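Hi U.,

Before I forget, here's the chain from the pilot set. I'm dumping it here mostly so it's searchable later in email.
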Amino acid sequence: MPALVLIGAQWGDEGKGKATDQLGDRVDYVVKFNGGNNAGHTVVIGDDTYALHLLPSGILSPGCTPVIGNGVVVDLGVLFEEIDALEARGVDTSKLVVSANAHLIASYNRTLDKVAERFLGNRRIGTTGRGIGPTYADKMNRVGIRVQDLFDEKILRQKVEGALELKNQVLVKVYNRKAVTVDAVVEELLGFADRLAPMVTDTGLLLTAALDRGETVLLEGGQATLLDVDHGTYPFVTSSSATAGGACTGSGIPPTRVDKVIAVVKAYTTRVGEGPFPTELHDQDGERLRAQGHEYGTTTGRPRRCGWYDAPIARYAARVNGVTDFVLTKLDVLTGWERIPVCVAYEVGGTRFDEMPMGQSDFHHAKPVYEYLDGWSQDITGARSLEDLPKAAQAYVRAVEEMSGAPISSVGIGPDREQTLQLRPLL
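Structure:
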């Protein structure tokens, strides 16, 4: 049985949580391989809606083992808040395992994230202020704190002391903030150690052994391709690897074990935070997409920027990730438009670009080149096959599939588990 990668093809919020949940009953492990509590997944099961931020979506699937991989940065306070909230609703979280090599978000990382973003002013990135970027910076600077450090107080104290030598200088002398004491940080982190200990394991070994036994592992990405620190719209990106390559480094599974890469793409486009967005709408259509699509961040509550479908971005995601299957979501949100624009290329300074421009400046100034597809007015949320959809909706699916560089295997027509049309098997 395979390892599957599931990632976002745009700027996030495509509906990865629902896609993971749909596969959850047929996979043995769901692994979160990047990011932290800076992105959310919303999963609707019947009348119940679950908003997950740090936990893998597989936490909602009985029989599935949810895994927080080594590529994740973990805020332990948030982790246990989420666990407690799910347990209070009757969800069994006892199978959760956490990599010993995952990095921890310390209080000083959250503080630095917030004050640095304010300091940037108009040059701000649009971070969530949850300490994600500074924690990944510590990881790359080799002054990070890992989960395993909680179980050796001497090592933990040494690492916190080393990290604070410079950070306190920055907090006090640059940002005019109070210095952070080593004792306060150590005490806070050690307060979680006993509860965390039973969850911690060598997750790379665990997952490789599972694959050797013929079990199925789903690697679930946070954020999305255009927010990847290497392949996204830098510098307006996240701090981790949100593409298929990051699934391997963030989980300990080698690329030779991955059989499929599933990319989730919305039937239109949204973005949260700063940065270029060629198809963004600043008119009534944009407001209507936001209202009909309930486009507000799961984690932050921020209103999402909305625009039409961008085929060059989808093609880019297909190429960068090696996408084998697209999952098209929220097709129902487009109901009611007489004509629906789809971006097929860009125009920059009189030159047409059929693919994403290489340079940041060109992409920032890119104007969408649209083709117009017929819309539909019928309610499609009760459809159970592609053939049940109005002809224009079927044509829309086929048209964006042809433009996007990989087959569409599933179409979402509503938020519920059952409101999904399977065109071909994902597993």
